[in-house]
Input
Amino acid sequence: MAETLLVGSGLTKRYGGVTALQDVSFELRAGEILGLVGPNGAGKTTLVDLISGAQPATEGTLTLRGQRLAGPAAKRAKAGLARTFQYPQLALELTVAENLLLGRAARRHGTVWQMVAGSFAGALRPQLPSDAQAVRSLALELGIERLERPAGDLSLGEQRLVEVGRALGQDPLVLLLDEPFAGSDASGVAGIVEVVRTVQRRGHAVILVDHNVDLVAGLVDRIMLLDRGRSVFDGDPQQCLASPEMQQVYFGVAEPADAEEDAKHVVS
Ligand SMILES: Nc1ncnc2c1ncn2[C@@H]1O[C@H](COP(=O)(O)OP(=O)(O)OP(=O)(O)O)[C@@H](O)[C@H]1O
Output
């Protein structure tokens, strides 16, 4: 059986009186792609935030390859986590090539997020001889052209693709993708799917958040369905689509035959 990479146990997050996540546990194995679905406010981004270290957990623990995963996001990036954001977080005044380079630097120095927030200029130096070639390879793999454009000139879909490329440049053990397909055209979706497959081929793992349950089910090995902060299903994607939990979460109580067909087309 494949090595266990990431384990979450009893993860809970409370924001004041709001419980965003309640006692969520999971295991992620090498080469596995886990889809995270659920309606608005279900807790998907919160779980990504707790894993990446963007937010501290109120309760619960995480381990990566058996080692306790805790502390700030920069430390977790160096340990092998990379993430993208629901709203892409690129350094807009830097070029596409420089943004891709930030991913390489993130694995050496800390998170992209902190660099984007202020101190990214220093993160671009020193560059290793292999960096320029790595950036060109990334761009080729994702179909990203005109590397000298400022990132601020890109469309939303193009920004997402660059952000995913930046995360891939970190060579993550676990890649966390928060709604990577939103705003992407067909070629952007294809580029992002290729990144997911690349991480899987490397024997690493991906957690993919998206509202398009149909798209997610076709891509992932397993789905976790969240509802109001709780994990209500964790298992085979097709079984998830047909499960009573799925009908309940998205449609309330429904006729089984109709609901199964509807569930294949959930897009919010
Ligand atoms: N910083 C915060 N402060 C207070 N409440 C928060 C905060 N972040 C999230 N929440 C609340 O936690 C709950 C879960 O939010 P979260 O963003 O994780 O859901 P989601 O499943 O990602 O939703 P969406 O699909 O709309 O992005 C929601 O009720 C949300 O309002």
In short: The two ends are 36 Å apart (CA to CA). Residues 4-263 form a domain with the Rossmann fold fold (CATH 3.40.50.300). The beta strands are 4-15, 18-29, 33-37, 59-64, 67-68, 81-83, 174-178, 205-209, 222-227, 230-235. Residues 186-201 form the longest helix (16 residues).
